[in-house]
Amino acid sequence: MSFESKFKFPAYTIPKEIIPTYEPYQEDAPIVFFGHYCRFKGPFVVRNNICCLDSCVTNSKKLMAYSWDGELKLKRKHLISAI
Questions:
Q1: Three-state secondary-structure class, residue 51
Q2: What is the reported pLDDT for 40?
Q3: What is the pLDDT of residues 24-77, one digit of tens each?
């Protein structure tokens, strides 16, 4: 899965022969958190079991965390700023 990038890339079409195949992360899979992505619109809950904690701390000056309380579906209201 790919998200937006802070870099501008040239217009390019990847040939079908070299595009890797992958299985999407299933909605019933365990909860996963990721970061070090420097999203412009982060952090956010991508799906009920996927959360991007990256707020690009160098720009936002906010270190983010998720206050998990045992819920099986992630909720945006549980995203908190640690500083």
A1: strand
A2: 63
A3: 889 999 999 988 766 666 678 889 999 988 767 777 777 888 999 999 999 999
Cβ pair 44, 65 in contact under 8 A: no
Return the exposure string of 1-40: e unless at least 16 CB atoms fall within 10 Å of the residue's CB, then b.
eeeeeeeeeeeeeeeeeeeeeeeeeeeeeeeebebebbbe
As beta bridge partners, residue 1 has none
Q: How far is CA 45 from CA 5, 9, 21, 24, 82, in A?
A: 18, 26, 25, 16, 17
- Asked whether the beta carbons of 38 and 54 are under 8 A apart, the reply is yes
Predicted pLDDT of residue 37: 67
